[in-house]
Hints:
By secondary structure, this protein is an all-alpha fold. It has helices at 2-35, 43-52, 56-62, 72-79, 85-113, 120-144, 147-164, 184-206.
Amino acid sequence: MGFILWVKIVKTNLRHNFLPHLLAALGVALLAPVVFETSSLDGKLAAQPLEMFLSLAGALLLTPVFLPEQDENIRDLIRSKRTDHLAVCALRAVYSTGALLAVVGGFTLFMRACESAVGWQHFTGAFASAFFLGVLGFAGAGISGNVTVGYMAAMIYYIANFSLKEKLGNFYLFSMSAGDGGGKLFLFAVSLLLMAAVFEWKKVREG
C-alpha cells in the first residue's frame, strides 16, 4: 500500500505541479542555440551556452519544489494527511534533479552532434552550476515560504556572476567558460549540504 501511495503522489505532482516548470526548462534548452553558437566550438567556447544559459534550467526546476505548500489551503490539506509533506517535497527535489540531469545531458549531446568539443567534464560542470543555482532558489523559497523570493535569490546570484567573475572563487558558476573549470565538485557538495540544511530547518521549524 505504501508503494502504491507514493506512485500516486508522484503521478499527481508530475501532472499538476511539475509539468509547467519542466516545459520552461526545456524552453531554455531550445532557446540556447538561438542565443549562442553551438556548432564546431572548442572546449572553452562550448562551455558558454552550457554554463551561462542552461544553468537557468536549474532555477526553473528546483526553486518551485515548495510551491504547492505556498497556498494555505493546500498546505493545511497536505499536513492533515498521514504522509510527511517534507518527504513529498524531498521526492519533488529528487525528480526535479533527475530532470535537470536529463536536460543538461540532452543539450550536451546536442552540442556534441553539432561537432563541438564537449565531453564528460562539460556535462558534469554544467550540471553542477545549474544545480547550485537551483538550490539557491530552492533555499530562498524554502526559508522565506515564498517562491518569488527564491527566484529572485537565484537571479541576483546569476547576474552577480557576470560582474564579480573570478572574485567568487569556487562559487563562480562560469569557471569553464573562463578556461578553468575548477570548483565544480565543490559547488555540487555545497548544493547538497544546503539542500539538506533547508530540509532540516523546515523540519525543526514545523515540528
